[in-house]
């Protein structure tokens, strides 16, 4: 790495927190058995919260945010990796309780990293990131529990990172996808371009509804939680599957047991942070094979390390959609 070592740091300051771009130091490399030059990261909603100093995300200070890391191995104590290998890590505590990807150089744990497929660029890997990995976990869960191509699947938060990639993967696999968004007029053609069969207003799902409603969906990929997740459960058919991976609307679940005891609906939790190595390898193989790079490009905007703090503010204000890649080196 020829350029100076730089990092975005969240730190204590005058009884609060501040976030700034600083010159990197040796003690900011973090811990791990693989040293990498970071080439790309991405900006997720959780990263935007961390940049704002949200202590629900930031578990320790000082902290470098960034839950996604893509980079090139400089040195490795693990025989799995060699200098020059391109690697990716998603979650695994990065950007929460250990230093993450908004830095030019970082130590990572070999147990959480995988070598990128040769057919995938580092930019595209960052564009997929945790959001795409979570989408792949959700789609896999639907398939694992018996939801087949041709069936109806609802995707909530469909213009977000998880939702956009889930719509695309499900449509490519032959599912009839209903995409829910708060900006139907603005994003209808965009979501249909990703493969959505139907686009609905999130208002149909975001307010309290009856505990059991007309069964409209065979499966659901939900990233919102709260009333949206509850209504999705109430609209799922007998033995259907609902995956839950987020809480953009809220962490509460004001539900009844009726969908479970009268329709045997299955609610499956999705945790991308702590996925084991074999799961990471398998899901990234699927992402490499199933995600159209031209579609991914349409979903993606790019910022630099110097711009990511401001981009985080925009993310929290609802001014960004799709995926945001952070170019580091």
From TrEMBL:
PANTHER family: ACRYLYL-COA REDUCTASE ACUI-RELATED, SHORT-CHAIN DEHYDROGENASE/REDUCTASE
Protein name in UniProt: Putative quinone oxidoreductase, YhdH/YhfP family
Any one GO MF annotation of this record: acryloyl-CoA reductase (NADPH) activity
Organism: Corynebacterium testudinoris
Keywords linked to the UniProt accession: Oxidoreductase
Entry keyword Oxidoreductase: yes
Taxonomic superkingdom: Bacteria
Domain Enoyl reductase (ER) as annotated: residue spans: 15-326
Keyword Cell cycle annotated: no
EC id: 1.3.1.84
Protein's gene: acuI
């Amino acid at each position: 790495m020829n350029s100076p070592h730089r990092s975005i740091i969240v730190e204590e300051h005058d009884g609060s927190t501040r976030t700034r771009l600083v010159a990197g130091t040796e003690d900011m490399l973090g811990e791990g058995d693989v040293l990498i030059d970071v080439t790309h990261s991405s900006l997720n909603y959780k990263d935007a919260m961390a940049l704002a100093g949200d202590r629900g995300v930031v578990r320790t200070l000082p902290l470098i945010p960034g839950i996604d890391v893509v980079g090139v191995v400089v040195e490795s104590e693990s025989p799995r990796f060699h200098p020059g290998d391109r690697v990716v890590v998603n979650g695994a505590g990065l950007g929460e309780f250990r230093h993450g990807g908004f830095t030019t150089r970082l130590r990572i744990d070999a147990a959480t990293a995988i070598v990128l497929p040769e057919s995938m660029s580092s930019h595209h890997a960052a564009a997929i990131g945790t959001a795409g990995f979570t989408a792949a976990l959700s789609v896999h869960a639907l398939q694992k529990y018996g939801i087949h191509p041709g069936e109806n699947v609802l995707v909530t938060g469909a213009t977000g990172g998880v939702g956009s990639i889930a719509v695309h993967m499900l449509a490519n696999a032959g599912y009839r996808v209903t995409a829910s968004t708060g900006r139907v007029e603005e994003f209808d053609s965009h979501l249909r371009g990703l493969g959505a069969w139907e686009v609905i207003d999130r208002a149909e799902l975001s307010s309290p509804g009856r505990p059991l409603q007309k069964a409209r969906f065979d499966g659901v990929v939900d990233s919102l939680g709260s009333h949206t997740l509850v209504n999705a459960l109430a609209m799922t058919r007998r033995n259907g599957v609902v995956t839950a991976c987020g809480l953009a609307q809220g962490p509460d679940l004001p539900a009844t047991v009726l969908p479970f005891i009268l329709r045997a609906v299955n609610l499956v939790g999705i945790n991308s942070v702590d996925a084991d190595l074999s799961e990471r390898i398998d899901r990234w193989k699927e992402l490499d094979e199933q995600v159209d790079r031209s579609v991914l490009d349409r979903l993606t905007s790019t910022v630099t390390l110097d711009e990511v703090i401001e981009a985080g503010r925009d993310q929290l204000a609802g001014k960004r959609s799709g995926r945001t890649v952070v170019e580091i080196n």
